[in-house]
Amino acid sequence: MAQCVQSVQEFVQDSFVPMVAVLCSEEAERVTRKNNLNFAELLRPFCRLTSEGHIRDPNNQVQVVKNLRICVNNVVTSPNTAFSPAQRRVLNEVVLSCQPQEGTATNVITAGDCDLNFSDHSLKASAPWYSAWKETLSEVSASKHYTATTPWFEAYRENFLQSMPASEHEFLNHYLACLLVVSSTETVPVEQFLKLSQEQHRIQHSGDYTNPKWFIPNTLKYYVLLHDMSEGGEQRADSVYEDMKQRYGHQGCYLLKMNSRTFSAEEDEQIPDPWSQYLHRNNLQSQVSAAATDRGPVSCQGSQGEASNSLESHPLQLDTASSSGSLHTLSAVNPELKKGARDPESLAGGAGSHGASLTLNDHDHIRQFIQEFTFRGLLPHIEKNIRQLNDQLVSRKGLSRSLFTATKKWFGGGKVPEKGISEPKSTCGLLYPPEAPELQIRKMADLCFLVQHYELAYSCYHTAKKDFLSDQAMLYAAGALEMAAVSAFLQAGAPRPYPAHYMDTAIQTYRDVCKNMVLAERCALLSAEILKSQVKYSDAATLLIKMTSEDSDLRSALLLEQAAHCFINMRNPMVRKFAFHMILAGHRFSKAGQRRHALRCYCQAMQVYKERGWSLAEDHINFTIGRQSFTLSHPENAVTAFRQILTNDSRQTATQQGAFLREYLYVYKSVVLGNEDRLPQLPLPCIHSSATRVYFGHERRLAEGEKQAATHVSLDQEYDQDLAAMWCHLEEQLVAAANRGIVPATFQPTQCCLNSQTDNLRFPLAVAEEPIIVEVTFRNPLKVPLALSNLSLLWRFTAEGATPSEEKTTEESAGEAVTNEEALTEGVSNDVVTTEIILEFLMGPEETKLARLRLLPHSTGQLNIVGVVYNLAAASSGEGALLLSTGQQALEVMVVRGRQDLKIQGPRLNQTKEDKMLVRHGQDRRLDPIITPPMPLMEVFFLQFPTALLCGEIRKAYVEFCNVSGGALCGLRVASTHPDFFTFGSQTTTPLTPVSPTSAENCSAYKTTATTRQPGSVASETLVSAKDFSQLSGVMEIPIEGGTLQPGESTQLPLWLRGPDQEGVHEINFLFYYESTTKGIKISHRVLRHTVFICASRSLSVQASACRSSVPPHHSVDEKGSGGTLVFVDVENINTSEAGVREFHIIQVSSSSRHWCLHKCINPANDKGGLHFPFYCFCRSSVGGAEKYTFADLNLGNERIISSSTPCGDFFFRGCRPPQPQRVDGTSSRTSSTNKSPASDISNIVRKCNELDLNIIVIWKAYVVEDNKQLILEGQLHVALQTIGKEASSLTPKEEAQEMALLKFKAEVPAPVALLSAELSQLIKTNLHYPETYTHPFVQESLCVVPVTLTLSNCSSAPVDVLIDLRHKSSSPESLEVHSSFTWVGQTQYKLQLKPLEVLCLTLRACFLQAGVYNLNTPRVFAKLAEQGAMCETSQQAASPALIIINSARVQPQGDVLGLLD
Amino acid sequence: MAVCIAVIAKENYPLYIRSVPTQNELKFHYTVHTSLDVVEEKISAVGKSLGDQRELYLGLLYPTEDYKVYGYVTNSKVKFVIVVDSSNTSLRDNEIRSMFRKLHNSFTDVMCNPFHSPGNTIQSKAFDGIVSGMMVQTASTV
Asked: Which positions 567-586 of A are in contact with B (Cβ < 8 Å)?
């Protein structure tokens, strides 16, 4: 509950005070008028008595009257029995004028989980209302803790209670006494007194006037002689006073001397002005009486304003008083006078000049006068009347005892009901005549109440209540109940509890039976206050809420607000109830026209609803706040409130949202009209700031005709972390290549497109004259479409190059930021940065849409993209956009211009502990590019670039480099993820192919020479250094002529492509690198990205294996070599699915090796064979040398393809080279470093002796039918033969098998021995040399001894111990049979040691007994490495039989021998 | 039958509010929100006296001119509020109780849904269905 400055007792006590009427003579009126006051007003500040009075009750008990206040009023005879509309209006104004001061300190009340803010203005704002009692209340106010005050409510209550019309059923507002005031300047003052006295009598008793009402028939008349000190004649006044004393007794008259101050002294002395606090009220009351209707809204809140308000009505009162000449109705004032009274000049007339002629002494005089009047006149009068009434009552009841004791008996019951004499029944019960005996007791009770004899008052009220109830005089009964409850409450000792039900009954009766809301309201106000003082907030709230009704919005509003305050003052504060009732109060306030109060209520309620998920309610409150703020011309607040509705995720319906939007736009427009200087922020549509993407550079042109532009980066691409890393890696390679292998420390990857995932810590670099595209994500949260127009970016630009001195002196603007904000509003184009404007941008309901906004910077410096600026309008069902363009309709569709800032928060930091504890965000400089001078710009186009290739297919394409900028560029390089996919050809071996792509159609990509096909021809050999194909890393320099591209120049280069070896879709990324020819620019280089997708389909599979040939060395053609190897090449067509491919032709098999080369095709016969295509090729060691490669071509067709030239050689090196150097290095290091481990040593030696470094290139042609056209495709496949005996394939083994391998938790036991034995068997190569046929004359000599040479050659590079055993140990029966026929003679066992690579010949002798065919291959050879133990010994036996034919020689001719053999 | 059914989270924000479509939704929001004060009062009062043996059903929270507001609070302090038309005198306390129990069961099912993240508003067809079954069947229900 709002705290009051008064205590409850004081409040209730002050609500009912003795009323004193004033009748003034004209002359006296004139005297008081000098002070700008009438007499009643003059007395008002002094009406509270500071000293105690005493009164004796009927039992002669002395009763102390403390702190008594009397109320002095002019006699007004207007018939205001009911509460007039004018009074209502006045109350309305009182409330209106009492507003919380803005900007005062706020009070925070914690209630439940809410903190409520109230502006605390208790002392300041309510000062006018109570500072007269401030002295007496100072201790109270100091001790009290003010929580929330509602001074408007107190003001209302006070005014309400004071303007209560005097009612028939009670006497509380009836006049008890009348002051008759006459000036001493009158010619005959006594006559004037008589006249006034008669006047009073006439008013009271003539029956002409129902108002004012008088308490007692014989009203106390108190004669006051007013003496104006400034006019002199003090003696005369004294003498008149003496005369008066004679006439009226000294207790019935008074001489008041005043106006002792001269006007001249006015300036010197500042006299306090106690009237200012009262005159507002006074003024209003006088207005009520004057029925002054229309008044402007009281806007001023200070006392100054009220003083000026009061001023305006003073002349009015003076006029009426003088015109009527007496106490006639003030209501008769004609409108002209009123208007005149409120002229501006009268308003402007000296403010605060009340009591100008009064000194402090005069103040004291007045105070003394009041005291004298009260103690000498009023209180004795009341005392007398109480006695009289008591006596009457006692006598009427026929009781000898005093009423005081008798009441006790009456409470016991058995009271005889007294019937009024034929009272007319009305709706509210009986109406007693004024002098009815039933009313006497009530009258006495009221008197007792007024002099604070509450005990007696209570008993009287109680008695009266019973009487009235029994009479069914409901109005009277209710009044008695009310007052009984109040007096019970006010009884000091509190002998009985406060009878709340009395009040409830009274309120109910007033309201329901008597239909008198005013009385009910008074009763409720009192009761609520009392209940609150007893901490019965819940009851008070219920009571107050019950009192709200349709008839008075103001009252309902105020009471609801008080009820709301009750809820938060409860022990368990009911914050939500508070809020809800505040809303209700706000609603009623707004209905009552109290907009400020309404707004305040809603704002306070908002504190409870805010951000708690009750969006519907929140929207409603916000909407109301917005509307109220707007009507109260706080459009900024209105805009804020409306913005809340629109930005929150709304649950409202589409139509509702549309209405909100229209309202918002309207309000917003008015705000914008108010201040033009800076565009305000718009809430709609929502911008998803972090999703903003920034793109530097031109948007890529798409492919034009045959040309296919490099894909580069575009805003349409999604950001991919892996891809970005890949590009960065490529760029790093390029930069390293450009800087002699070192990546500079300052290297930063080029980022063309910035988004939330990229590294935005540094200022991005943008190039002048190249656009900057910002993609902003807009989201329309509403269910209604929005139409944006003239959408553009808002930026700030700080020019670079302004030297510091310039900046400081004249060119202040050079260093200062230039912004386009004004330019946009004024429509001036800017020469620093060109801003592109999107004319129309429509957003559907709840749509998320991207807008790409473009800037084109022209000069260098720092650019900050601040936000976006646009026109916002509600698109009405789609065609709103059309209307926008035409001016006239644009007025109908509300369009507002505003901005929205782009605030991008960097990623959350998570490095230090503080970062982790707090929520910290890093920098994000996406939108702050530095504009650098123009850079060269290159475009890359591809011509005849295929999308699908067979595996290994060679295709020629062209690439065009175009310098589209104004600067020359150089240092062109390219890096790729698949360096083996393409080649530009090497300079030395580039064939003279046509440069232009058009002439190259249907031309083979290979360089060929025509030869005739000769079966079994010897391979032609070429020796090529690997350095000719030196670009072995991922980076290739692009061989353009001159190395630079001049502005506007373009050049085409051929490009050979080879289909990847693996089938499937391959993503191939190219990164082109170039530099500006001018150095020292911030951007050191630029890059261009290109991504192609190549679909590779299967073609052929080539499998090759090599084995040792058993051909003896001398059989080979070339004597230089140490031996030959047989190579088997199997070719398989695995292109089964492709319908287009008709057939494959193998046109050439080439080899490339440092040590070996293909020599001869043994059996190239059936080249039309099916899937398998066997080759038998001799191989020989060549004199290649370490770095030279020997290319040997064995062509199967009519032309020879020079495999050592581009592109064949290029792709060979690209495809096969990379693993080789690594392998060579690996083995060499292994042999040197791992000597200690014997096992690995052996294996090395063994491996080395099995090593074969031969690469087979199979070149094929495929006939493809495509679109009814036959195409010939060419291709090459590589097989790298590493070891003898192992099969190698052109297809790389599938990786999946490896991936899917089971996890093994136990280390596999290695089997080195088994592996070794297999390998060791290759250590020694054995050859038997013997004559194929041997003729021996068995007839002559039975033993035939044939010399056989066993050649042992050590293949390894280590000494080997060899054991040769010639003895037959075979157990198989057939071999026994065969072998038994011959035997080795001579030494049958040899133990030798072979030095590395040594060839040893042993001459053996075989002895045959008869002719036949023998297998000589029986010697068993065991070899072991010299240092190793026996475990390594292995049989070296060759499996193949060595057959010898032994003929028996006869004397007969040869023919017989042949016959014998058969 | 009910005219408005609401589920309020422990932190007193609405998890679910459905009201009869023919009437002003805002009014019910205010009513339900205001009733939370009474719920809290009742919870604090009950908490002192009985401890864990708490009756979940809170009974009539307060009657307004047009409606009767009933409350129910789960052990996790989730509140259910059912607003019933005052003119509907046929509803007994027991029936309200069973309505709350049904609501609670359905709510528990919603909470058991692994795809429901606690604290979010309830979006469940099953729950909707249960609530619809308790609501006043207006003529407009198609």
From this structure: 567, 572, 574-577, 579-580, 583
Query: How far apart are the C-alpha atoms of A1007 and A986, rounded to whole Å?
Result: 13
The answer to whether residue B61 scores a pLDDT higher than 50 is yes
Distances (CA, A) of A383 to A17, A53, A56, A375, A457: 15, 12, 7, 11, 13
**Between A654-674 and A615-631, two packed helices, what is the crossing angle to 10 degrees?**
30
Q: What are phi and psi of A1359, to 5 degrees?
A: -70, 140
Say if A560 is an interface residue toward chain B (CB within 8 Å). no
- Token code pair at residue A1235: 């000597």
Spell out which residues of chain A touch residue B37, defining contact as CB-CB under 8 Å: 112, 567, 574-577
What is the C-alpha to C-alpha distance for residues A1365 and A1388, in angstroms, rounded to an integer? 6
- The reported pLDDT for the residue numbered A308 is 34
pLDDT digits (tens, 9 = 90+) for A1063-1076: 888 888 888 888 88
User: Which of A836, A696, A687, A685 has the alpha carbon at shortest distance from A758?
Assistant: A696
What is the reported pLDDT for A968? Answer: 83
Nearest to B41 among A113, A572, A609 (CB): A572
Distance, CA of A509 to CA of A486 (rounded, Å) = 16
| Residues B36, A576: C-beta atoms closer than 8 Å | yes
Query: Which pairing describes strands A930-932 and A765-767: parallel, antiparallel, or unpaired?
Result: parallel
What pLDDT shows up at residue A580?
86
- B33: nearest CA in chain A? A576
Confidence bin at A1028 (pLDDT 50/70/90): low
Tell me the C-alpha distance between A315 and A331, whole Å: 15
DSSP 8-class letter at A48? B
User: How close are the terminal C-alpha atoms of chain A, in Å?
Assistant: 138
Maximum CA extent, chain B:
48
- Sequence letter at residue A625: I
Residue A952 pLDDT greater than 70, yes or no: yes
In this complex, which of B13, B30, B44 lies closest to A572 when CB atoms are compared? B44
Instruction: Collect all residues of chain A within an 8 Å Cβ-Cβ radius of residue B13.
Output: 612-614
Quick one: pLDDT at residue A1440? Answer: 63
| Substitution target from B30, B39, B78 for chain A, most A beta carbons within 10 A | B30
Residue A144 has pLDDT above 50, yes or no: no
Q: Is the pLDDT of residue A1040 over 70?
A: yes
pLDDT at A716: 73
Q: Which of A112, A572, A613 faces B13 most closely, judged by CB atoms?
A: A613
SS3 track for A803-818:
CHHHHHCCCHHHHCCE
Element (H, E) at A821: helix A821-826
Contact status of B42 with chain A (Cβ, < 8 Å): no
Residue A1032, pLDDT above cutoff 60: no
Q: Token pair for residue B12?
A: 């007193």
Judge: A617–B41 Cβ closer than 8 Å, yes or no: no
Of B14, B40, B44, the CB nearest to A613: B14
| Average pLDDT score over residue span A456-478 | 82
- Residue A854 β-bridge partners: A773
**Cβ-contact A709, A702 below 8 angstroms:** yes
Alpha carbon A413 to chain centroid, angstroms: 77
Q: Give the closest of B13, B26, B37 to A576, CB-based.
A: B37
pTM above 0.80, yes or no: no
Do residues A1109 and A1125 touch, judged by C-beta distance below 8 A? yes
Mean pLDDT of chain A: 70
Confidence of residue A323 (pLDDT cuts 50, 70, 90): very low
Whether the predicted pLDDT of A725 surpasses 80? yes
Contact list, B41 vs chain A (CB under 8 Å): 572, 574
Task: Name the CA radius of gyration of chain A, rounded.
Answer: 60
| pLDDT of residue B101 exceeding 60 | yes
Q: Strand pairing of A1333-1336 and A1443-1448?
A: parallel
